Amino acid sequence: MRKIHQVYIDGHFVTPHGTEIAPLYNPASEQVVGEVRLADEVDARAAVAAAKRALAGYSRTTKRERIALLERLSSAFADRLDDLKTAMTEEYGAVRGIVEGLLPLAPKMFDEAAALLASYEFRQTRGSTTVSMDPLGVAVAITPWNLSAVFVAQKVAGALAAGCTVVVKPSELSALQTQIMTEAFDAADLPPGVVNVVTGRGATVGDTLTSHPDVAKVDFTGSTAVGRQIMRNAADTFKRLTLELGGKSPTVLLDDADIPAAVGAALTSGFLNNGQTCFAGTRILAPESRLDEVVEAIESAMPAFAAGDPTDPATGVGPVVSQAQFDRVQGYIRLGKEEGAHLLTGGEGRPEGLDKGWFVKPTVFTGVRNDMRIAREEIFGPVLVVISYRDDDEAVAIANDTPFGLQAHVFSSDAQRARRVAERLEAGTVLINRIFGDPEAPFGGMKQSGIGRHHHTYGLESYLEPRAITG
C-alpha cells in the first residue's frame, strides 16, 4: 500500500501541517491501495507565501527562459506517462482508450504553450498607446480527479507562460496521479516556489486558497456548485476567474445524418471516461421521423460499451470513481424510471458477472422529456437520455433549454445545414460530425457551465492583465 505523506512547497517535499489521513481506493475492486495525508489551511497559506516570494523573480523572466522551462516540463511529464497511465487506471478506473488517447495531451500542453510564447507579443501598440500584457500574480489551479494530469498541465502551462507562479490543489481522490506529477515538477528543475502542490479538501485548502488576499487568479475545473462557492470566495478581492464547470451537452442527430455512424459517435461521447466527463454528450436529440432507426442503432452499438475490467483493452466502460458516486448514479437511474422514461438498456445494479467494484450498467433512456431531472441535471456517470424532436427549430430549442452550455454536437450529411444549426446552439464549443475539439480553439462554457476560456491565446491572456501606457 502506497503512503503519500508529503506535499510540495517552495521546491521541497515537506510533511504537511494537516494530519488527516484519507484512504485511496481502486474503484474496480473497492480495495484500499494507498493513503494520503491531506494538507490544511496552514499548508495552503505556506504554499501561497512561497508562490508570492517566487513571483518577483519569475514574473521578470524572459520568453526564452520560460520556453526552456516549459520544454523541461514537457519532457518531465512525457517521461512519466507510463506511470500516469497505471495510476489513472488504478485510481479511477480509466479504460485503455482514455489513457492511450487522451493522457498524451498533458506534455503537449507545455509544448503548445512554449510554441505560442515564442510568437506572442507582451508589448503591443494600439494607436498612440503601448499595451503591456503583465502577469496577474499568484495563480491557484484547482483540478478534478478525472484526467488530472491533463487539467494540471493545461492550467500550469498557461500560468507559467504568462509569468505567474502557481499553487496547484488537486483532488484528494487523485493522490497517486498527483504524486507522479509532483515528482515531474521537481525533476524539471523549476525555481523554488514557482509551482507548489497541496492536496487537501475543498472546504479547507480550497476555501483558503480561493479567498487568500495574495492570490490574483483562480483557475478551476469541476462542478457548477463548487464554482459558485469559488466566485463567492473570490469576490472580496476581485480575483480573476476561469471556471470550467458542469454540462448536460446535447448531441443533435439531424434527420439526414448517417444514423449508425452518428449514434456510435454519440455513445462514445456520452460514455467517455466512464461517463465522468463534463463535456459528455449525455442528451441525444433524435428526429421523430427516424427515431426507430436511432433506437435500433443504439441497441446494436451497446455491446462495444460493455462495462468491465479497465485493464482489459476490450472494455468500453470502467467503474465510477467512488461508492458515493455509484450511489448517486443508481439514484438517477431509479429516478428516470419514476419519471416515466423508458429504460432501453442498462438499469440498476452492477453489470452481470461483476460482483464487486463500483461498476454501473451503461444505461440509455428513451421517451425522455427535456423537463425531466435526468435530462436537466449532470449525472456524471454512464447514463444517457434520448429526446425526440419534430424539426430543426425544435431541436435547437430543446438543445438550448438547459442551464448549461459547455459543449454541443451536430451530426448531418449536409455541412451547410449542420453549420446553420451549430451557429444557433448556446455552447462554448459546437462540434460538427466529430466528438473531440481542436486544441488551438478556445474551450470553456456559456451560462452555468463557466467563465473564461482555456487553450492558445485565450488561455494565456486569462493570466495576463493589460496595462495601457499613453504619452
TrEMBL record:
The active site is at 244. Keywords: Oxidoreductase. The keyword Oxidoreductase applies. The keyword Repeat does not apply. CDD domains: ALDH_CddD_SSP0762 (cd07138). PROSITE patterns: ALDEHYDE_DEHYDR_GLU. Pfam families: Aldedh. GO terms for molecular function: oxidoreductase activity, acting on the aldehyde or oxo group of donors, NAD or NADP as acceptor. It comes from the Bacteria. Residues 16-468 form the Aldehyde dehydrogenase domain. Belongs to the aldehyde dehydrogenase family. This is Aldehyde dehydrogenase family protein. It comes from Streptomyces chromofuscus.
